[in-house]
Write a structure and sequence with these properties.
alpha/beta, Rossmann fold, 6 helices, binds ligand NHR, binds glycinamide ribonucleotide
């Protein structure tokens, strides 16, 4: 059975959706860079090992990443899952987990890499928003796309309402992608995400009507 370590920074609802999906996987640990991350309490209550590597205790990103890698490697996971993890990772760290680290990002990449994605999507007048799961590479939010799901942006949306609509899709999409990986069907090959037996899209795309006035 493949093993998984999940990295969080906050609430941890995506971590929870993965834990509760009942995957054929050994969730070895949940690690947070913030001691107050709400998701830690949930993981502890479920009997999952937890750890905190607080980035504020390290003088630079290199040393934080080294400590984080040491904590991850104690659990020797096959897959590292970033689930609302909010620290940019150094190239050395990313290289160590090449092809076995994935991230969920709340936009339709390559649009809106980085932070404040929902505000930027609304400000840009986008009619469609969504979520992307991708392999992590040295390029921030730029790694090979594994799967996406789309949602409409409604006329009266604010960041909160749009984020909630996207999050509901995140909770469907991320467990599916982790299932693909732990069943040995998903891999990174020659810079592309490949899924044995089918196209690695997994999209639940919507067509969004244009207002007719
Ligand atoms: N690291 C690499 N190298 N590549 C990626 O694709 C990564 C990554 C680290 C995190 C998640 C990402 C997202 O999905 C992720 C992808 C944090 C920031 C950020 O600016 C940007 C993107 C992502 C996560 N973080 C600030 C920083 O200085 C801190 C913000 C905070 O602590 O609240 O690291 O969006
Ligand atoms: C999710 O929407 C996730 O896509 C996003 O933060 C939220 C975390 O929620 N990730 C990023 O913005 C990464 N920079 P969760 O802690 O409840 O899973």
């Amino acid at each position: 059975m493949k093993s998984v370590v999940i990295l969080i920074s906050g609430r941890g609802s995506n971590m929870r959706s993965i834990v509760e999906a009942g995957l054929d996987a050994d969730i070895r640990a949940v690690i947070s860079n913030r001691p107050d991350a709400g998701g830690l309490i949930y993981a502890r209550d479920r009997g999952i090992a937890t750890a905190v590597v607080d980035h504020r205790e390290f003088p630079d990103r290199e040393r934080f990443d080294r400590a984080l890698a040491a904590e991850i490697d104690r659990h020797a996971p096959d897959l590292v899952v970033l689930a609302g993890f909010m620290r940019i990772l150094t190239p050395g760290f990313v290289a160590r987990y090449d092809g076995r680290m994935i991230n969920i990002h709340p936009s339709l990449l390559p649009a809106f890499a980085g932070l404040d994605t929902h505000r930027r999507a609304i400000e840009s007048g986008c009619r469609i928003a969504g979520v992307t799961v991708h392999f992590v590479t040295g390029e921030l939010d730029g790694g090979p796309i594994i799967a996406q799901a789309a949602v409409p942006v409604l006329a009266d949306d604010d960041e909160t309402t749009l984020a909630a609509r996207v999050l509901a899709q995140e909770h469907l999409l991320y467990p599916q992608v982790v299932r693909w990986f732990v069943s040995g069907r998903l891999a990174l090959r020659d810079g592309r995400a490949v899924l044995a037996g089918e196209r690695a899209d997994g999209a639940r795309a919507l067509s969004v009507p244009v207002a007719d006035e």
